[in-house]
Amino acid sequence: MPHDHSDHPHALLPSDPALRVKALETILTRKGLIEPAALDEIIDTYQNKIGPQNGARVVAKAWSDPAFKAALLADADPVLADLGYYGRQGEHMVVVENTPAQHNMVVCTLCSCYPWPLLGIPPGWYKSDAYRARAVREPRRVLADFGVTLPADTAVRVWDSTAEVRYLVLPMRPDDSEGFDEDALAALVSRDSMIGTALASPPQSSSEASV
Amino acid sequence: MSRLHDMGGRIGDGPVVPDPVGAPVFENDWHARALAVTLACGSLGKWNIDVSRHARERLSPKDYTRFSYYEKWISALADLLVENGVLTREDLQGQGGEGLHVLASKALKAEAVAAVLAKGGPANRDSDIAAAYRPGDRVKTRHPGGNALVDGGHTRLPDYAIGACGEILLQHGAHVLPDSNAHGLGEAPEPLYAVAFKAAELWPHPEHPNDEVVLDLWQSYLQSDPEEAGA
What we know:
The complex is a heterodimer of chains A (211) and B (231). Chain A has 211 residues and is of the alpha/beta class. Helices cover 42% and strands 11% of the residues of chain A. Chain A has a two-stranded parallel ribbon. In chain A, strands 2-3 form a two-stranded parallel ribbon. The radius of gyration of chain A is 20 Å and the shape is globular. The relative contact order of chain A is 0.15. Chain B has 231 residues and is α+β, with helices and mostly antiparallel strands. Chain B has a five-stranded antiparallel beta sheet. The longest helix of chain B has 15 residues. The radius of gyration of chain B is 21 Å and the shape is globular. The two termini of chain B are 33 Å apart. Classes of the chains: A alpha/beta (211), B alpha+beta (231). At the A-B interface, helix 1, helix 2, helix 7, helix 8 and strand 3 of A face helix 1, helix 2, helix 4, helix 5 and helix 6 of B.
């Protein structure tokens, strides 16, 4: 077996995970191999700048603009790059559309591949053993864990992200959202609806519906 | 045989527990630090994404099971740093040498973070290997599976899809082959496809006759479906 050791170097670090991270960060910083300010910048990026609001923008635009949607589904990369949504873990995007006949759902059974520029860092459940193990074999039972039940005539297509291609689900536009502008539509698009473990939310308040 | 990370289809895991509305991006501060340290160390240029993934996969089965997600990241990072000669075992024990590291000039600077994250690391390449399949073609995945170049090596053909018949859905062009790139054997780009498999082809008790699983698979993972070739 390649590179398999019985004595992994990581065991030399403190076993408590928070202390293990801290110890390695300290060692690397002392040697000038990492810059703590750069770490802060990375964290700030994914905590505050890049997240599911990006994907929701794309979905809202696709719901509003048929030509945009057609281009997005045909070849997502140039369309997303035009909007500035490109980068690490989103270099090769494919957008898959939910219809009454087909529901799409995304998983990475081997690790935790996820479209970072559009959805940010994946939630804990996406990285959990239970989701990775079950999504491909029993997607409908997994959907039930999220409170979603599909009609019997809707087929489920699960996308296992085994390469560097990243998938974004284009959920179905909720009924009663006619006349909504892109901001109002984006508010109906949850992160999970773009992974395929939720549906886009129906409009709730009458004030929203009258926009 | 595969490793524990290859868990698609495994039976016995409990329910998936969705996160509460408004849950933070990082559950703990150290999760965020673990992610950031790992990304920052990528800038040292000593490994690629396939090497990095493989380092997490080859944590011992005992560690893979007991470590939480970001524990796997930070532990695999420590292993990579030592294996690639960036740090010594003494360094990890706090008994290493003092002073700036020879690689310090490569350290990721705060002002470069936005550009580095925006630039990404595309995996598509030109390849001498012509695409052998087109959308609609019937194919069968390799059996036995596993890495054909390195015994016990990294591969992206999951156990559950070994020896299964499916249909080419999309052509993605040519991409770096992880089975080679994870072991310093070169990028070896070859055609990559999205391949659709009927749930009944993969599972003895599929939930629904029309459900499918789609996987991205490299050309060397595939052969023409013998049943179709003989038809």
